[in-house]
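EI: anyone free to look at a 180-residue chain?
SC: sure, send it
EI:
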Amino acid sequence: MKRVRAKGPRKRREALHRINRFINADPIRLVGDGGEPQIISLQQARKMAEEQELDLVEISPNAKPPVCKILDYNKFLYEQKKKQKELKSKQQKTVVKEIRFGPNTDDHDVEFKRKHAEKFLQEGNKVRAYVFFRGRTIVHKERGELLLLQFAEKLQDVAKLEQMPKMEGKKMIIMLAPKK
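SC: here you go
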């Protein structure tokens, strides 16, 4: 019978910390819950961990001597993942909302879109407003720039202008960020 091997490189799971028999530094600094840090031999620390039916985990391998702790390794990893997840959830994600104009957009339409932009900014999102030039309307770049600057001026009480009008291809763009 022929053995079939999966294609592609094998992924080897690297351990985050050295534990128990994989620790090779001697002596080590053993830190515990509430107790004073003490410098002891590796064999002594392993024996203490065995007696407590826990793992000896190398917390800080670069220290002199390396810092180890006696704890339940799986519980330790679980706690670390939980902390990482909590930190990630607290990060603020910025969302950019877009508002599109034409170079000949009417005042009523600009006012309607201003209200939407104001709502987006109050929610904490950034607003990217742009004038899209189609066909021959590109010859009226000054109209688009004027429209965007007036739009930014109407929103100056809730937003600050991050980027002045700038041409990118057939679009003239401004960026607005919420005022804090």
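EI: DSSP finds four helices and eight strands in the chain.
SC: 👍
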